Amino acid sequence: MASQKQRKGFDRAGAPVPGGKAGTPVPGGKAAPRAGGPKGRVSAQRGLGRTRTIAAVVGVLVLAVVAIGGFALLSGGSKAGSPGTGTVVQSSYGTYTDITPDQLASELKTHDFTLLNVKTPYIGEIAGTDLYIPYTQLQARASELPTDKSAKLVVYCRSGNESGIAVQTLLQMGYTNIQNLDGGMNAWTASGRSIVQKNRT
Domain check: are 45 and 141 in the same one? Predict the structure, then answer.
């Protein structure tokens, strides 16, 4: 008959070895696997690999957020504000505020400012408009603008493109309290309000 496999901690006759422990080498026997052997090292290496992968993903996400923020700052100015006060825009020549149709409608209740239409050619205007000066003629017709450079001006056009140029011109001319209707007359009519026609040149 085949001999029985020797139990660890016992001699070949099956007698206990004094001070013997499971996994203790005995003549002709094998030692039990120790903790931290090859399997333990593989498990630890896998855990370390997962930790490094997570750290790399987090790093990439952080870099992406920073890159997006930098792009926003480089693309025409930074914006900050709240829905009730408009959005303050930092440009090359100073700051101005973008406002919504709802904000303009609210401000028109008191109308303590100059409402300026700069769209060219003339296609109509928002009721309550004080001046019509094409954005290309602002400097040539500066005498028609308020003499007080701190006076509040609200500028608009059809879509916001020409009023954006007008705002930069007005800032260069020294005006410091300027609001721009974001989206222009397009946004105004989209909000359910109307445009009126007058004889303007």
Answer: no
